[in-house]
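Subject: mismatched residue count in predicted assembly?

I count 1495 residues in my input, but I want to confirm that the predicted structure covers every chain. Input:
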Amino acid sequence: MLKEIFLFELSYRKNRAANYIYFGIIFLLCFFAVASPIVSIGGAQGQIKPNSPFAIAQITLTMSFALMMISSAVMGVAIVRDFDHNMEALLFSTPMKKMHYLLGRFGGSFLVLILIYSGIFLGLMAGFAIGKYMPWEVDWKTKEILAFNAWSYIQPFLYYTVSNLFIMGALFFMAGALGRKAIVIYTQGIILLILYSIADSFLANVEWKETAAMLDPFASQTFEYTTRYWTPAEKNTQLVPLEGIMLYNRLIWMAVGIGALIVTYYGFSFNVVRNSLIKRKPSTVKEQAKKTDVVIPIARQVINTGTYLKQLVNLSVFYFKTVIKEIPFLAILITGMLLLIVNAFNMNQLYGTSSYPTTYSILELLDGFTLFFIIIAIFYSGELIWKERAVNFNLIMDALPMPSFIALLAKFMGLLLIYIVMLFLLIVVGITIQASYGYFKFELPIYFSSLYTTTITFLILYTLLAIFIQVLVNNKFLGFALCIVFFIVRGVMGELGLEHNLWRFASGSLGTFSDMNVYGHYIPSFSWFKLYWFALAMVMFAVAVLFSVRGSEAVLKMRWKTGKLRLNRSFLIFTFSVLAVFLFSGFYIYYNTSVINKFVKSDDQEDLQEEYERKLKKYEFEAQPRIVDTKLKVAIYPSARDFVAEGYYWLKNKTDQPIKDIHIQHSIENQLIINYVKFNREAKVKENFENFKYYVYELADPLAAGDSVQMNFKVTFDTRGFEQGGSNTNVIFNGTFFNNTSFFPTLGYNSGVELGDDDERKKRKLDKKERMMERNDPRGLAQSLFGDDADHIRFEMEISTEGDQIAIAPGYLQKEWKENGRNYFSYKMDAPMCNFYSVVSARYAVKKDKWNDVNLEIYYHPGHEYNLDKMMDGMKDALGYYTKNFAPYQYRQLRIMEFPRYASFAQSFANTIPFSEGIGFIAKIDDPEKDIDYVYYVTAHEVAHQWWGHQVMEAGVKGNAMLSESMSQYSALMVLKHKFTPEILERYLKYELDRYLSGRAFERKKEQPLEFVEGQNYIHYQKASLIFFALQDYIGEDSVNAAFRRYNSQWKFKDAPYPTSADLLKEIKKVTPDSLQSIIHDMFETITLFENKTIEATYQEKGKDQFEVTLKVSAEKMRADSTGLESVIPINDWIDVGIYGKNIAGKDSLIYLKKHKITQKENTFTIAVKAKPRKAGIDPLHKLIDRHSDDNTKGLVKK
Amino acid sequence: MQLIIQNLSKTYSNGVQALKDVTLTINQGMFGLLGPNGAGKSSLMRTIATLQEADSGSVQLGDINVLKQKEEVRKILGYLPQEFGVYPKIDAVTLLDHLAVLKGIVNKKERKALVEALLHKTNLWAAREKNLGGYSGGMKQRFGIAQALIANPKLIIVDEPTAGLDPAERNRFLNLLSELGENTIVILSTHIVEDVKELCTDMAIINKGQVLYKGNPLDAIAEVQGKVWSKRIAKAELEEYRKNFNIISERLIAGRPEITILSEGQPDSSFQQRQADLEDVYFSHIFNSSKETTLA
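Triage response: the counts match. Full output below for your records.
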């Protein structure tokens, strides 16, 4: 019997077109993911081969849970269809066994499901087999790929896809069999999805990653966790083995799947009528005296505009009520809110430290709600359009005396009401979250002005779109499918060359909200784009009204015949006016974005970059004079988003040859107008590359060696209308912040413009590009990290701004005055400084303090007082430590200026530090015992740059960031070390280790050792923290400081040639004892990793307060090449061995920590301690770089 | 007011011709539209109820052009479709009130009185607060008529209202219909001859999209009076009789077939003359039209 049912299921499915369509979708998605540039799932970039086992596993995994919809459709209906087609009474009265029925149906459907999903590996295989021969662009066409290996495709399919299908299939099968309704399956699907995202965000913390990996039903987190530190070389060769956490995860969830089947077996009953779980009281219909002889009273029928309005209101409310009573709707809403609350637990985290729940952060949490909004909009638009037809009430409705547009409009309005209420609930949840954090600045206007503008327009536009699609295709499921197709198409339109937002349905964004700049300049472009899309949506709505089905005619031609009768005067006026608005706003947007501003497609942008390189590269090493003096007047007009800069540079010929041509590169920003460039001697434009704003001036008399020329210039930044994207966020209403390299003229060829991506370069037949010059390149040694335009400059700037703003540049304030309602500030630096300065203007409040003779000032946005004291402390402690240990501070002033959160960094200029609103001003350090005070830390890091970068400028060659960034990391770390507990430091370093290891996993070119770092953040920040912390642990903080001090005194305030990492290493080697010289090689000159592990840990009680601990540890040392390929090398290192006891507070505390020389893999230690030991291990404080840092220690077992 | 249908034709996109040149004049009072399943009754009624387009022909109601001035028709229309559902989770009062608003009864008090009267009239008063999902077929059909009567319609179209009702429900339902005002056009379609006989003053028989007969039911009976002969035969003889006679209907009585034929004189002595009724009229027309099509 089982066999018959099983085979029947197969043959039934064989004739269902849907199954072939599902297979087709999966196959094509996978095929195109490989063999087209448009669809992209997962990412094989840089060094990772497109057909690497990792990339294939990633696509397989993504596909096996992204299309959960398919498994619900296939598995859910296995039982439900009998109920849908009223077959149950026929079937269940046959002498069929329940077990056979259920198992047969499940087995048959499951097999079908596996066959459908085999499209994954078949699609991928086909893609790699014939992708090369496709007529279109395929990313890897010119690249070498790995040889075909079937196991790379099959292994992930078995491990992830088949198991996921079983788990999900069993759950959906259960929902279908027990729920007996399709809606139960969908609801379950949605709830699962939401619960999944809740868990996902709940476990997003580093500390929870392992738990998340264990519990992920799709094994996606598990895969991510297992491979998070895999280097490119490993990704190209390895498959995740079915062991450890992956094995446990799969076993847990397979058990859940089997459990679901068992529940189904016991819960399912062949009874056609079920006993309801809730016993309802039989509703007694009271028999009353029959009054059938009543006369039907005459009621006045009034049909006029007022009636239409009343009909509209009534119907809208009616639809509103039907939707809010829907269980799936409530499920989405409630679980969505839960998601919001859970996300609120780890909001805006940096190093595990939260931010204040400002209203905009709460609103950003709502982004996670978008998916549910889309589901609601599309799903319920469809449901409402089909509402009457679904219950067969349509003919009655259609015969009512009501204009055709009312029914459709009411459906829309019903949904609109839903949205309004839903958003209101979200606001309530948001406020509750804020209150629960003890934050009471609710800022209701921001809630309303955000949710009831962007969010609701998004919903409205997609609802109108969905209505349009549903009406025109007149098939509910085809309508849903088309909505999804529309989404996909919208997503890939950019790839197809339709990059302008005029093509992207519902485009227009309010941008990033900033307390400082509020919605800033985003409002006009947002409003115009929304007007444009609204007008289009109205046109679509009018078309929908015309074609909406009323009565029994479904053929398009007939609907048109009916629709023609609806073409009355007001309908035509409406349609043509919205059409006119659509066209007008479209033209207006086009005029703004593409006529008075420039819109460049990304391909064209790349073409331009390529052309720049081809045409101008020859000038790269053309000798140029250097700027030695800069004096500028900058007038900022924040409310117009304009500025005018006028002044001069003195250019000095520092070479020993005369210079005839001066090459000027202006900013290519389209708002920038070059008013003039004039030299104080005769010169003419010799060559003119207008589209690159690159001009070659020829001096009538060449500039002799050692001679100088004054270059006068004036540039105007003129913001016109609005741009297509967010527009620049540098010159804005409140919080202007830019530096000289963005808008002021520079000298000579700028290699930074060149295309950086090697794949792209190869496509365009350009040579591979080195990221930086070699460390011994003389041209590199002759220029500082700030470029080859200058060494040190004399600097003066007068800035004016609007009457309520303060404008700041580096230097000391000489004079401050008011003129014509504008504020003027004159700054001058009294000593030469680097050629890197910022211009800042905003409505500031100021906090002042002093450290010795240094004026400390923080310019902040009023309301952002939370962390000012921490910043002040950070500045003072940093100035104190660096002055004592490195060199005196070179200035008499240090300023921090807040700038809007369009960017999240802080940056050190000479005696000024612009600091983003987003990374410290609203950080919330609750528990100084636990939370990493990154505000204090970032401040200390930026202050350190006044020494490392400003006092000592290093050469612009490989390894340069080790001298500015890494030295600042170390300096700040030392300040941190003296302020906070070792536990906080340990926690901080744990984050740094994680970020280093995951950073190198995504290296696109090649991983460098620290001494040759080439702009790789994960090395010069994260790895450097670990390395320098270990270094000071090995050779002593004083020794490191001494080396830094010597390096500083040797190179301070010097012009070219500049120092390199070799110069610092030389000093470090000097202070390192011979016995430890090898660690310098491990730390700086190579990529070295350790694999330390405690195998066995036991102890014996030898007497009162006498314990003997026996530890068996393994230690391995590895060297990695630039792709991450590792080889084991002999170990001969001093490594910590530590034993923890409990202190009085009951917390772990070290009772033994000593470095032991380790020379082999397996080691045994016997150590006597005087307190009861709890756990012990090797390198317990994670000073060495170890990919499995959690197995270093182990709980002790008594022997 | 008169409903004048002229040369109405309709062919569906799948090629089925639902209406062939239908011409009818319907006066106030009950009008019965009789025909087998699939005869085109519903198509005709939907066309009159503004829910379907015609390929050609015209429908005129008083001075309203039904095919064009749909809104005007809908204002005075009460329509009960052949098969309809209701929102299961709403009670009768709420839905009737809702529909009354949509029909233009904007005065709340009048609406309330109207809804109550309709519920009494259709004997749903006791079950008015029960969700419609729990209604029996008869109750649902009565709810259907209640909604069709909102706003004193001048044109009421009820499509196969008695199908699937038990005899008692059917009686109640027909009583209700018969009470409808005399100055209203009521079009009732059915394939049950009894319905028409009991209710209608005027009727038409329609099959395969064509009007086969139109007139008064009594006239129709008079036409065949004296021509109806019947005989009980053995089952085995049936084929033989089918060949030799124009059998218009055959039915089983206590397990044995009784055939009815239409003939000017007694076919042979074994046939007995029977009192003609509307059913014979119906079957004779249907039979003839089927024969024509088979021959053609």
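The CA atoms of residues 544 and 597 of chain A lie 36 Å apart. Marking this ticket as 'not a bug'.
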